[in-house]
Amino acid sequence: MSQRSTWQWPLLVGVAILIAAVIYAAWPRSADLTAFEPDAMAQLETAMWRAYYEKRYAALFGDLYLASRDQYNFSPLDSVRIAFAAAGAARAFQPSSSRAEAEVALPWLVTYFRILSVGSQAAFDIDDAARTELAWWQARREAVPPEQYGAIIAHVAVLVYGIDNDSVRQAGLARAQAMAYRDQRGGDIGEADWSAIQEQLRTAYGLLKRALPTPRS
Question: Among residues 51, 99, 112, 123, which one has the fewest Cβ atoms lying within 10 Å of its Cβ?
Answer without folding.
Answer: 123
